[in-house]
Design a protein that fits this description.
6 strands; single chain; 8 helices; alpha/beta; 258 residues
Amino acid sequence: MLLVLLGARCYADATVPGSAACTHGNHVVLFVDQSTSTRQVSLPAELRDSLTNIPERYLSCSGDQLHAFVIHGRTRGKAVRIDLSNLLPPMPHPEGRSRSDYVADSVEYAKKAAEFTGWASEQISTFVAGEHSMPIVDNRTDLLGTLEVASDELANAPPNAEKRIFYLSDMFESMYGAGRRDFDMNPPTSLQVAADWARQDSAAVLTNMRINPDHLRGASVRIYSRPWGNREGSEYVREYWHVMFSLVGIPRERVQFY
């Protein structure tokens, strides 16, 4: 298994005093589809910006974490990944401090936080743009495997953390074998078919994969699929995933397609 750890940069040497100002943390999982079909489409600049801005929005608090993975035929193996953690001390707090000391520490903290999130954005940009080529698995897309990966990664999320899952993908599952779907060759043909397939597949997924709905419960899902939105069956594929996510612990209202 190839393991690429691009992001474990430590900021533990920061010396900003104080207690945490963030009311909650963020535990983020990002999936980037590297299957052959998705690499044939160039990403719009605004979409690439949305992805590279994730650290600024969700890695700004002490303890925030982001784990990014490539989607391909062996997604569950976590073969290519990056891990980013905000290890800054908690933000300065004004209580018991002189105004001048608090302002000085706050300015210094903001500088270090901006340095970290800027660096983290560069890691995400590199990861999204990268060619993580693995010819044996590139022509398959194990999207159902992301449910196992997300469940595993969110298992250790702090109780007060906001759990967020991002996808850059057309969401076209494409796998061989009994009980697996190949939406490239045979996409769902109606909303009813999509919902029925999701219900059938969820039973197998929960039986055969290491998925704990309690780990996924409370998470929000944002799926960037617009570059491939004109693919035949896309509307019904979206319905498949709405139903699938609801059956593993994430209700429809917490799943958004962009």
